[in-house]
Amino acid sequence: MSNSNVTVCVRFRPLSHKERKGNDKVCFNKLDSESFVFKDERDEDVIFSFDKVFYDDSEQSDVYNFLAVPIVADAVNGINGTIITYGQTGAGKTYSMEGPSILHCNELKTGLVQRVLNGLFECLKTSANITTWTVKLSMVEIYLEKVRDLLDLSKDNLQIKESKSQGIFISGATEISIMNGSDALERLSEGIANRAVGETQMNLASSRSHCLYIFSVQHESTPDERVRAGKIILVDLAGSEKVEKTGAEGRVLDEAKTINKSLSALGNVINALTTAKPNHVPYRDSKLTRILQDSLGGSSRAALLCCCSPSWSNSPESLSTIRFGTRTKLIKTLPKPIPTEVYSAKKPSPYSHDQDDLHDGTLSKADSIQSEASYPSLDSCDHDYLRERLLSKLRLSLKEEDVDLLEELFVQEGIIFDPDKVVLDIDSACHDAASQQIAFLVEAVGELSETVQELTDENETLRHQLEVAQEIAARAQCAAAERSGGSLFGFVPAAVLRLVGFVPD
Ligand SMILES: Nc1ncnc2c1ncn2[C@@H]1O[C@H](COP(=O)(O)OP(=O)(O)OP(=O)(O)O)[C@@H](O)[C@H]1O
Ligand SMILES: [Mg+2]
User: Fold this and answer.
1) Does the beta carbon of 87 lie inside 6 Å of ligand 1?
2) Ligand nearest to the CA of 255
3) Within the chain, how many helices (H) and strands (E) appear?
4) What atom of ligand 1 comes closest to residue 207's alpha carbon?
5) Choosing a second label site near 11 at 20 to 30 A (CA), which of 86, 91, 198, 373?
6) pLDDT tens digits, residue range 287-329?
7) Among the atoms of ligand 1, which is closest to the Cα of residue 202?
8) Is 91 strand, coil or helix?
């Protein structure tokens, strides 16, 4: 497949009991492990291809091995990664993430969350170079456009922030240090119990919120004594739904509207990112897109699992999910520097304030050390810090949306800088100034050569007049000498004298 930034796979779950009972037909024809044929809305066969297609007989481990193993390896090397499950309600997103149950399920059915955790610990424990490490987890949900901490329900409106060193992060989210997979699952099951889930006609345990599992890894390795930090975010989205099918009413209807709105914001972001030269990517239109800004915008590895029902009765929704996947596959953002948190244990870091939010474990402020590589200058870090301070002050008295609007205004007016745009702006400003200067010089040179041409012409006329005058004068002198008497100009015609500027009275 193409060298897109995002790995995109499709997964068809098996027909459900209800669908089998209703004698539902299957809506696709398998071609191979990457392609299938699907009828579009005009009843025409269309071939769709993805990085991988998981059919109804696929195992949970197949999904993990293809989609998540590279992301786990990258995270241990300090590269952030995101895996998103997307699709219609009841299509198998939560099943792919958690399996039938996060705590009690057999090995075969274990979902991505548990496998990613085990994979992380496996990598850390078996790597000969890694000397010390910490793994922390956070778990939040976006419910009715608020970010809630699922590990501490008192934090029900967390703020999404951005800094040069961390990129986008959820400020104040609870972080728990974990030592092994089973430790983590206990805590995650508490979080899952806190998640908003409701019953709809399409799914008995429908997720009514987008859920994010965030695993932060930090480790020190020999022989360079570097500390590397990486992050994996697993996103189990709430499903898109047609309310007439799910039978949503009251609160469930409000939830459905908010879910559909944020999913369409996600679609708009994908559309903007796949436009040739996007002027504006509307990341700030929803909490979901803001949180996923780094993942979709090219700063970290991303994988999308498009979950589909195989049933003919759900084919319009499945087609829309498949098209979303096709569109996402077109994202080719310029690789931006990954928010790096690689430190060498040799000199103290001046940026430890940025580290405080994320890391309180093994590395103390004094230990957190900046590497020699090209990391943000002190000025830009200070700039970030001041920007965050200003915005935090505003957040005390204003609503988040208003602060976002003000922030955009401040960036436009140059009161604060958009960290992503600073370098671009300086470049384009230099480019503008240089072009202006060149245009000015070209114009001046043009004017100068016109003047030179005019003077040359004038000079030529004068030289010619002078020659004529000299000749006349010479003749006049000769004539005067011969006649030895009379007026000097007596014999010169008046027209000739006028031509050379001598006009006798
Ligand atoms: N690959 C699969 N194999 C077996 N059962 C599956 C599979 N995928 C989904 N299911 C079953 O289908 C039902 C719906 O799945 P799930 O809850 O994961 O849907 P969802 O996409 O998360 O929906 P929602 O958006 O409403 O949360 C569940 O009973 C689940 O066990
Ligand atoms: Mg779900």
Assistant:
1) yes
2) 1
3) 16, 17
4) 27
5) 198
6) 999 999 888 877 788 999 999 999 999 999 999 999 999 999 9
7) 26
8) coil
Note the pLDDT of residue 182: 84
pLDDT in tens, 268-277: 898 888 876 7
Q: Rounded to 5 degrees, what angle do the CA atoms 232, 237, 242 make?
A: 165
Token pair in block for residue 397:
């008295």
Instruction: State if residue 321 touches ligand 1 by the CB under 6 angstroms criterion.
Output: no
Please tell me whether residue 141 adopts helix, strand or coil conformation: strand
**What SS3 state is found at 372?**
coil
The number of residues making up the chain comes to 505
What are 104's two structure tokens?
């009690």
Q: Which of 14, 13, 57, 16 is nearest to 33 (CA)?
A: 57
Q: Which atom of ligand 1 is nearest to the CA of 307?
A: 21
In this structure, are residues 417 and 379 in contact, taking their beta carbons and an 8 Å threshold?
no
How far apart are the CA of 98 and the centre of ligand 2, in A? 9
- pTM for the structure as a whole: 0.70
443 pLDDT more than 70 = no
Going by C-alpha positions, the residue among 337, 371, 308 that lies closest to residue 96 is: 308
Written as one letter, the residue type at 105 is C
Max Cα-Cα span within the chain: 140
Alpha helices in 14-105 (DSSP H): 17-21, 60-63, 69-76, 93-98
415-434 pLDDT, tens digit each: 666 554 444 444 444 455 55
100, 136, 356, 400 from 391: Cα distances, Å = 42, 27, 18, 10
Q: What is the mean pLDDT of the segment spanning 88-113?
A: 93
Find tokens 């900046």 and name the residue: 370
Instruction: Compute, in degrees rounded to 10, the torsion defined by CA atoms 167, 284, 382, 351.
Output: -20
